[in-house]
Amino acid sequence: MGKIKSLFSGRLTASMLSLWSILIVLFIITGLVDHYFFTIPSIGVTFQLAVPLGLLAAGQTICMLTGGIDLSIAMIATGAAFIVSIKSPSGLGMAIFYATLYCILIGAINGLAVGLLGMNPLIMTLGMNAVLIGVFTVGITTFLKGSSTMPDIIIKLSTASIIDPISWPLVLWILIGGFVLYLLKQTGLGRLIYAVGDNAKAARLAGIRVWKVQLTAYILCALLGGLAGLMIGGQSGAVAMSLADSLVLPSVAAVVIGGTSIMGGMGGYTGSIMGTLILTVLSYLLATLNSSEAVKQMIYGAIVLALAWTYSKLTEKS
Amino acid sequence: MSQSPILKISHLSKSYGPVIALRDANFEVLPGEIHALLGANGAGKSTLVKILTGVITGDLGVIEVSGKQITFTSPDNARKGGVAPVFQDPALIPDISIQRNLHLTGTDKSRFLKEILAMGLEVDLNKLASEIELPLLRMIDLARALSHDPDLLILDEITAALPVDMAEKVIAIMGAHKAKGKSVIFISHRLAEIEEICDRATVLRDGINVDTFDAAEGSEERIVAAMLGDKNLSNTRNLNRVNKASSEVLLKVDSLSGGKLLKSVSFQVHKGEVLGVAALEGQGQDLLFEILAGETKPAGGKIVVNGKEVTFNHPDDAIEIGISYVPGDRKSALMPQRSIRENLALTRMRGLRNWGQIKFKDEDEKVDGAIRSLEIDTRARSQVKRLSGGNQQKVTIGRWVTTGFDLLLCFDPTRGIDVGTKGQIYELIRKFADEGKSVLLFTSELREIALACDRAIVLYEGKVQANLEHKDCDEESLLNAAHGLAVKK
Amino acid sequence: MNMMLVKRQSWNIGIVLIATILGAWQISRLPVFGSYEARTFLLGILPIALLSMGQAIIIIGGGINLAIGAESVLINCLAARFMVGKSFIACVLLTLLFLLVSILVGALTGLIISKSKIADIIVTLATSFILIGLAMYIQPSPGGGMNLTLAQMISGKGSAFLPPLITLILPLVVIWLPLYRSRTGIAMFAIGSNKDSAFLSGVNVDFTRIKLYAVGGLFAGISGIALTAITLSGSPFASISNTATLNSVAGAVLGGVALSGGVGGLTGPALAALILYFIPTILLNYGIDPAYSQIITGALTILVVLAGGLIRNRGKKN
Predict the structure, then answer these.
(1) pTM, full prediction
(2) What is the ipTM of this complex?
(3) Where would I find the ABC transporter domain in this sequence (chain B) (predicted)?
(4) pLDDT tens-digit map of B33-59
(5) What angle do the packed helices C183-193 and C205-231 form, to 10 degrees?
(6) Domains, chain C, ranges and CATH?
């Protein structure tokens, strides 16, 4: 009886509408500047490029809904890609297994520190990122020596097109994105993620073991980050230390633009998907404008700020 | 008295969204007068004080100080205008020293030390505010306010939970301030203090001033009558109902202690019984409820449920054996940005086995049932922060209706709630008892004990001062016991 | 009274002890330790120490600035671009002008945070893009310079260790000390400690926040000028600014500034920069990969925040 509809409020759809209009306007402007953009293959490529950011944003959304943030996601992604490329000679299954183990381990450390020890998530994950950079910098010359190319199947999964504009990565994103949406809207865990972010004390008084929810959120975030890392690795063919660096801040930005509050409890993955697409089209536009990297950065930052500001005003009113 | 008033408020009103806090307040303070401001919780006292001290601005109405119309835009502004407040929670910055706190407000140090000396106190100016005990901190805040030589001093519940000697000092200071021809607005729930020191009293109810009179000896009845106003409340829930409580003991608390305030509390709750808890502020009642809810660990003593001794490590442990908690502050019970449904169904998600697919059909049933039986207004269902206080409180209770419980711990559930909803909540509590469930009910409004409870205990200084049967639960006895006096038989 | 002082200063005393031990260790490894080596030390820590101080001020006031590294890089690039080949007098005037710019950039950041009511993290994430973009626009590739006389006045020459020492200490004495004693400075501690109490004490919270970010910006600006004087060039790299921001947070936290705001000073962060500098140098001496220092820094930051949080929690419960 309208139970799914009731998950959206009137205000949420209003802001979703504004996200759609921003995306469409950006889309049209980009198409006008670069006519090639409107072709089917180009749209396919745009989607394909959006996938890693979309997956990182999915993890970030889950974390931020609980009132946290994960800035170690760069090294989680890069680390997972490293592990897969190095372990791939001993079989893809083993490689994926080790990478998964790695993600769960890092996610669990983050989650336990935040959930049980009450660490500030920003510092925890920044610190974790520094530690991981150190570990991998040392590792690639010692215990993690080996191949730095991604296995073919992962390259295929992250780049190959099925029928333009549908590609394997897009299919993967639809599957995983669908799962994240389902998780957040239709499951008990999803409810708890929102509840913990909205009011952790109240959740505790209602009998919820808050730390378990936070632990799960950080593990899920790490797993999604790891998957994104494999996609980025697959798309660039080889791994490097700075693989996912440039996507960390955009992953936070995509979530914020999409209307998820950094204080937690408000928002959802639908908005983050929109945020991801907006940022991807924006990058494309900035690239085609032939502008320098400097101008790109400035416009990028200004637009993220403007969108976040607009959104906060929009929600403040009602 | 034909003097021109130092403060004159006319037709002041203020609303927060749909909630009207002040409707039409009119109020005068004369020079050299100690004026009591009274009212039940939610009557608009705190809103009025906030407007007077520049914390918020009113929507409509006029404030005149010494005949000049003004609007205070900030606390600093108000202080410069001669109005200085002292709140129950001292407005000193916790992490910096007293000296720096004084500097922050531009307070003269030697003047401040003189005031402190006059109080017979000693203060180490180098101590951080957070290192000082609350009572002394309040006195420091008061001395700081006095250093500015305000024409109008506003004391908001400053004597609440203050030790007797300190409270006496406050009374003496008010007298001295009055002797200088300056005025004081005094807010207190201790009626004896008001009779002792105040010249006049104004009572607020539902955002309107309903009565102003000389606060002479014996005006207590008039105060209470004006505060309560609506006589219907007591008539609808008269006292001749049947006590269905069984003799079976559900909860037995044995010399429970914890924190600084809770010394040693023992009592029993029977099945199907509503046990009232009465106490003035700060007698350890908060902690008692938190311990029983599994939120805080006790320092000592035993909790026995259905004959078995229990220890709680987490509220979930208490909920598992049937003890549910409705905290006094709705902010710590609700997810403000989530819907009524999610708030009501939250406790259903306890435990890993409920983390999967939500059973929407079952949830619909339970949630709709709770909404119906509690008569929750669902017009603003998408976010509970947009509900009125009464509806929010119903949601916090309704949560436990959807999950079920044996013992409900209700901490001041009617604080700041309109009279109609109050009646509904008490009716609901009676209904729980009729169904064989037990309720432990703390209320800050003593007369409500008689309306909703079968028995009552009164806490004083962290101990059970009195154990009263229903027939003895009149306000006078409760009040006497709450002040540590013997109950007259 | 004296015990109280010792207790309150215990963190700083600890930091001094650790820095001294590490320093002694490092010095013992050197064949000679003279003023030349002392100057090398000072040049190694000068930019990051100043930046940590700037971050510390902002965290004390209840904020956090993730664009502080970008701000320093921007001033570095501005200085290097416009001071190259200029006379001493011109360079001095330009220095003053650019410090003014850094104050304005900080104030603007504070203004945006106050007006938009968006979380500090989000606003400064976005401004970090804009500022780095600006820096790249001004100085597209590494280069530029500064009048040598001025540079030597700031950073010294050969074994003249006094100039960098003065550059480090002067801002503490000239900016921080008077500020700490003034009502504005107290107001900064106040809004970080408890916004409501601060407001009730008559503090204009929004205006104080703007001043807070302005002072933080000034320290970032001084750090940028110092960097220019040391390297005699401007380096417009996001990676530099990100690392600098990270280290500034680590420095502030290690230096005893509580993330919850209201507690701390600037001497601690300056000394903490010394520790952060010694760790990699000592590792390098022993032939250990300096990447380990990243692990140690990250882990140290986490542990310090964790310990600080646990101590505070215990204090609350008692």
Answers:
(1) 0.86
(2) 0.86
(3) 7-231, 245-486
(4) 999 988 766 678 888 888 988 888 888
(5) 110
(6) 43-307 (1.10.3470)
